Amino acid sequence: MKPIAGVSLDLDNQWSYMKTHGETGWEAFPSYLDIVVPRVLEFMEERGLKITFFVVGQDAALEKNRKALSMIAEAGHEIGNHSFHHEPWLHLYDDEEVEKEISRAEDAIEEATGVRPIGFRGPGFSVSETVLTVLKRRGYHYDASTFPTYLGPLARAYYFMTTHLSDEEKEKRKTLFGTLREGRRPLKPYLWRLDPGPLVEIPVTTFPVFRTPIHASYLLYLAKFASPVASIYWKSALRACKFTGVQLSLLLHPLDFLGGDDTDALSFFPAMSIPSTVKMKRLSSYLQALCDRFTVLNMREHAERVLQSNPPTVDPVFRQWKTSGKVGRE
Fold this sequence. Notes:
Layout: E1 4-10, H1 14-21, H2 33-46, E2 52-55, H3 57-60, H4 63-74, E3 78-81, H5 95-113, E4 119-120, H6 129-137, E5 142-143, H7 152-162, H8 167-172, E6 190-192, E7 199-201, H9 216-225, H10 227-244, E8 248-252, H11 276-293, E9 295-297, H12 299-308, E10 313-314
Parallel strand pairs: 1-2, 1-8, 1-9, 2-3, 4-5, 5-7, 6-10
Antiparallel strand pairs: 6-7
């Protein structure tokens, strides 16, 4: 039998990329969901795949996005929680702030789609023991926020070099993408040991041993320079996952399906100069290679399989960041 692989898409919207990059105008919440959601749904339907969409609560709260979001549930895909404000410093929030952030997103998502999420991914892979504890208390079945790579500090340095952020905003983002410690976290799914009880963790898969990224946006960026190299890298990663017994979790983003021909507002994002048709053709080959070697599931199904496999238990050890007062939302 084939090993299993979970596939998910973080439904980050145009405004959230603009906000993260320090661009003006994000406060109007510009959206491309009416373009990208039908495109992704058609793409998955053609391949017979049902995946998980992690939805941002702020988008679900806006009437203009609700038709697109309801289409996801109607098509039979799982819907997860991706926080309300999509702020990658969620791990700095205290218990009360985390509770409000997650519950507010839950309510908005359920009102927009009719589905109450049971899975969570933190924005920017932001997670803490507080976040995990709140998730367990609220009845979540799994978290999917860890990203085991050693490249976090390098990614953060590149990010600061290419953004237009004030010193205050940089201070908020100083922990973005984590530390070298993230690279030592498990690649295989496991259970967090929490006071309210265990919670399944499904890491975003990185290349076994090397811990370099293999999510779709990274592959498309590599393909910009040498498409055959990106394909070889991806197939090598798939073989490495099978050899080491890693239950792969592939992460997708909306910009994997969008190009500069769809919007010019995100030209600062890597690989946005590539036309959407070229991106989707490459993405199709990556997913075909995955389906040839793995049984593809959504994240809820992946979590259920994890529980059946007697996974190891891990203590929620995170670096304690110093903060000055509250950093969350009122």
